Amino acid sequence: MPNAAIIEVIKPGLATSVQDTGRQGYYHLGIPPSGALDQYALAAANLLVGNAADAAVLECTLLGPELLFHRAAVIAVTGASMIPKLDGAAQACNVALAVPAGSRLSFDFVQAGARACLAVAGGIDVPEVLGSRSTYALGAIGGHEGRKLQAGDRLAVGQASIRTRVGRELPAELAVSPPKTQTLRVLPGLYDHRLEAESAATFYEDAWTVTSEADRIGYRYKQGRPLRFRGREQPFGAGADPSNIVDACYPIGSIQVPAGVEPIILHRDAVSGGGYAMIGTVISADLDKVGQMQPNQSAHFERVTLEQAVAARRDYRARFERLRQALSG
Questions:
Q1: What percent of the chain has pLDDT over 90?
Q2: Where are the beta strands (DSSP E) in 92-199?
Q3: pTM for the whole structure
Q4: DSSP helix/strand/coil, 82
Q5: What CATH topology corresponds to 181-317?
Q6: At CA 255, angle to CA 250 and CA 260, rounded to 5?
Q7: Cα distance from N-terminal residue to C-terminal residue, the chain
Q8: How many other CB atoms are found less than 10 A from the CB of residue 152?
Q9: Angle between helices 306-327 and 39-48 (to 10 degrees)
C-alpha cells in the first residue's frame, strides 16, 4: 500500500528536486546519472535521520522551499548553509530535528554554498525509474513527475528507521564548509593537446568566475584569458570552430571550452557526448565542490596526475567512512 503524502509544497524555492545517489549504467544510452550534486551532503543528511545513505532527499538550490508537514517527521539539512526555520523559528543545520505535525518549514537566505540536502526520516517516497528516484528534468523522468517541485505538490515519505534519533549531530570536522573560492583538481583530457602551449598554461594560472549559467547540466566560467587551439584542417564530421572535434563521449566533470572563451564543467545531468574538445576532467573527489559554487564565485584549476586523482578519490571515500562511523548507531 503506498505511503500517504505528508509534505505539501507551499513555495517550491528556486530549483528544488528529489535526488538520491543517481542512476548508473545508462549513460551510453544518453541518460545521465543525475543524483545530488553534493553526494557527501546527501549521505550526511540521510545518516543524520537514520536513513540509508542513498535514500532520496530534496536538493534545494540557492533559495529553499516552504513546506507544510501534515504529519510529524524528523529532518536534517546539510550542505549549503541555508538555515531551516520551523514556524519562523531558526533551527540548526547538520542536526536531526523534530518537526511537529502542522508545522511549516522554510529557509533563510543561503549564506555559503549553493545546494542544501533536506533529508526526511524514511526518505522521499517517489517511484524508482531505472533504479533511482533522482530527477532528470531534461528527460522528464524520476523524482516527482520528472520535474522540479511546484506549489501544490504533495510528497510521501517512507517508514522511518528505528535508527532515527532527534538531536543526532554531525561533528563539525565532518560538515560541509564551502569556501567562496575553490581549487578544482583537473586530470588533463583526451584533447588537451589541441591547445596551444601558452593556453595550456594560462588555463591553470587564471582565476575563473562562475557565470549565471550554472546548473545541474553544467557550470560555465568566465574572466580567464581566452584559450587558443592549434590550427589544423578540421576532419570530416567536425565543425569549423577550432574547439570542435568529431563527436565523442563526455565523462561527467569534463571541461569543454566552446570557441576557447568560457569553460564549461559538465555535471550530473549533462548530455553524454558532443562535438567540443574536452581539455580536462574535474576529478571525482572535487565534483561536490563544483555543485556548491554560487554565481560570481571563483575557482582555480589545478593540474594533477592520474596517481594524484586516484589518491584523492581514496581520501574522499575515507571521509565517507568516517562519516558513517560517526553517525552509526
A1: 89
A2: 97-99, 104-107, 112-120, 124-125, 154-157, 181-188
A3: 0.95
A4: coil
A5: Cyclophilin (2.40.100)
A6: 120
A7: 29
A8: 9
A9: 10
